[in-house]
Amino acid sequence: MFPPRRASSWLAGLLAWLVAASAPADTPRLATLDWTLAETLVALDAPPRAVAQVEAYHDWVGEPALPETTVDLGLRSQPNLELLASLAPERILISPMFANLTPRLERIAPVETLPLYSPGRDTWAEMLELTLSLGELVGRPGTATRLIKETEARIDSLRERLNGDEPPLVMVQFMDSRHVRVFGDNGLFQAVIGRLGLENGWTGPTNAWGFSLVGIEALAGLDARLVVVEPYPAGVREALAEGGLWHHLAEASRGEPLVLPPVWSFGALPSAERFAELLVTALEAPDAV
To answer: Which N-terminal stretch is annotated as signal sequence (predicted)?
Structure first.
């Protein structure tokens, strides 16, 4: 029987071999801690070999799904560096959020930082730049250009399905039963509804990521339709079902509150198209809940 350390190294080596054997031969060996970069790479048909918190990615991002062979690197803020090193990536991709990890990651492979949601930048334009940058990085510039054109064409076609008389929308995601992220300027959801010709009912301040954390009482009096983006934290759905302020807000909503499956609110083009699809489909169903 192998000693623990030797067994761990053997398993890591076997895992690295299996991942390499199952990966497309014409794509670089990439690892990323960032889900936005991961979803975009999947959409470019150049999925990363390793991603942090794979299960949570599927909970919060939903689609596009990561390949089953994707190696889970552990926590985004504290990745398993031994495992990462065993995979011998050619490059490690991060967003500025994980810049503090750069010195340790650079000991394993070159690190590339790709920004999104930069203060003062147009969100949609920056998403396009990110897509093109990743396309160049993986040697698929044509695929990146096609992804942009197809995403914009799809959102344009979804806009044509709307009546044009939809009420303003207030888009939220629950943090607990009393607090939500409410989405507005600078964020992905705002960029999408703007392209769909819809109005945001939240005009309050937002941070660089396009949301503000507020108590649900801040939503009272807004003349808009509520849109809830899943997932709900544990116990929240049950707490809301017991009644209280949320019931009053739902009754005051201009139409039944819409509940959408998870969409990565800090994502790029794949999340933008997913949100547009889910939102327009929900708006077309008069009894959607």
So the answer is: 1-25
Domains of the chain: 4-114 (3.40.50.1980), 163-284 (3.40.50.1980)
Contact by Cβ (8 Å): 225, 169 = yes
pLDDT tens string 83-135: 999 999 999 999 999 999 999 999 999 999 999 999 889 999 999 999 999 99
Predicted TM-score (pTM) of the model is: 0.89
